């Protein structure tokens, strides 16, 4: 709300807040790139969870860090082809 | 005695590693600790100048690691503090002769003789960095409230973690309180939050650091200097005291008056 008002009056974000936001963005990428094994772990755990409910095509799945919609936002994007839905057990 | 060995490192150059090493070293010696400072920035020797010891050097780190002299012979004793020693690095010899194994061996040998050993690290994350951190138990990462310095600090923190260094601490140097107040500079809390490691110091940008460097007498403990007080607080935290962070904005007029009347 206040942010919106500020923008309306043309007041810019403080340079410190911009710095914070940009830093947080680059550090997600920096940390992920020096430790590719973490992305592998995330992938394995996601497969574990989804496989309980669906059969998935592992060889065609993709999990990556991508830039989000907003400036300096990061999204974990997963593209997981599903071949079959399992019968739900209760 | 069994020294704690601390490497002072940063990633980005020029953020104040050598200044920090000199100030913490002198501060620990003022607290009656026996301290050795090892300069590992081979080819760019500076720690001797900051301590005012440049004209007393006989041998250097490379002489020691190559076995020409025992380390005790290369140590330079401080003029004023009996328990403070510098092991200067070489200004000319081949850097590659100081490798991680050699420094590790030296640190183990020196450990029994001192309370603290501080290692001044070169900038970057190449061989010189790997060598400097090899013998250390723990690290102090120095950074500045500036986007690229913080990013490089994060990288270094990752490297230190992968090298199994524990209890890594952070010092934010050259803070300009006025810019922080205007919302134009990251403060200690922002940086702490982004890097998520324990902060043991916030040191303001202070002209007295320059004048004291000119004289070869580190500013630590100088009550008239905010940086001098900040560095002494760092030293006390290293010694295990729980010292609150000072409010850098408040060294206003009011504080100075209070101090003038001996009320602070
Ligand atoms: N708190 C401070 N206030 C003012 N000036 C400072 C402060 N800290 C450091 N400086 C100045 O910044 C410069 C760089 O400091 P220093 O040599 O300690 O950095 P460094 O990290 O060791 O650099 P390098 O990466 O080249 O080894 C010096 O001129 C020093 O006097
Ligand atoms: Mg230096």
Describe the protein's architecture and organization.
The complex is a heterodimer of chains A (90) and B (264). Chain A has one domain. In chain A, 48% of the residues lie in helices and 21% in strands. Chain A has helices at residues 2-8, 15-34, 36-51; strands at 54-56, 62-67, 74-79, 82-85. In chain A, strands 1-4 form a two-stranded antiparallel sheet. A two-stranded antiparallel sheet of chain A has the order 2-3. The radius of gyration of chain A is 19 Å and the shape is elongated. Chain A starts with a helix and ends in a 5-residue tail after the last strand. Chain B has 264 residues and is an alpha/beta fold. Chain B contains twelve helices and eight strands. Chain B has helices spanning 17-30, 47-50, 61-65, 71-74, 100-111, 127-134, 147-162, 177-181, 188-195, 207-215, 226-238, 253-260, and strands at residues 4-9, 35-39, 76-77, 84-87, 116-120, 138-143, 169-175, 198-204. An eight-stranded mixed β-sheet of chain B has the order 3-4-2-5-1-6-7-8, sandwiched between helices. In chain B, a hairpin with a 6-residue loop joins strand 3 and strand 4 (84-87). The longest helix of chain B is centred in the middle third of the chain and has 16 residues, at 147-162. Chain B starts with a strand and ends with a helix. Chain A binds chain B through residues 14-17, 19-20, 22-24, 26-27, 30-31, 34-35, and chain B through 147, 150-151, 154-155, 158, 180, 182-187, 190, 194. The structure holds adenosine-5'-triphosphate and magnesium ion (MG). Residues 10, 13-19, 41, 46, 123, 173-174, 203, 205-206, 209-210, 213, 227 of chain B line the site of adenosine-5'-triphosphate. The site of magnesium ion has 5 residues of chain B, from helix 1.
